[in-house]
Amino acid sequence: MMSDFIHEKTIVLLGKKGNGTSSTGNTILGRQEFKQKRSMDTTVLTGKVETARCCRTISHYEFDFIIVDTPGLFETGNVAETALELLEVTDLKPHVFALVLRADLFTDDEKCAANMLRMIFGENVFKHDDSTNA
C-alpha cells in the first residue's frame, strides 16, 4: 500500500565544471534533463543553476526530489554569485548537498569553494543531520 503523503527533498549537486554534476543529476532523475558539457576549457562561461523534479517510491513512501544542478560553482570568482542564486532557487531549504568530485583530484580551487560554502551555509553544510523536522 502506497502512502498518499509525498515527501519533498531538495538535492543540490555541487562540483567543479567537468566533474559530473549534470551527469549525476541525470542519473538520479533517470532521464537526460541537464545538458552535459565535457569541455574543460576555462574560457567557456559557466551555466546557470537549473532544477528538475522526479518522483521515486522508497520503502512505500513517495518522494518528490528536486535536483539542483550548479554547473561551474567551483570556478574561481563564481562561488558567491552562484551560491546566492542557489539560495533563491532552493528557498533556503536544501535537504542534501552532494559534493561531486573526481576520484583522482581535489584541487585548491575546490577546497577554497568548499570553505566558501561553509561560510555561506554554516559549519554543518557537509555533515549529516536528520534531527530537524523541517
UniProtKB/TrEMBL annotation:
Top-level lineage group: Eukaryota
Keywords from the named record: GTP-binding, Nucleotide-binding
Keyword Nucleotide-binding (UniProt): yes
InterPro entries per record: G_AIG1, GIMA/IAN/Toc, P-loop_NTPase
AIG1-type G domain mapped to chain residues: 6-134
One Pfam family, short name: AIG1
Cited PROSITE patterns: G_AIG1
GO MF annotation list: GTP binding
Entry coiled-coil feature ranges: none
Family indicated by similarity: Belongs to the TRAFAC class TrmE-Era-EngA-EngB-Septin-like GTPase superfamily. AIG1/Toc34/Toc159-like paraseptin GTPase family. IAN subfamily.
Identification of the protein by name: AIG1-type G domain-containing protein
Organism: Dreissena polymorpha
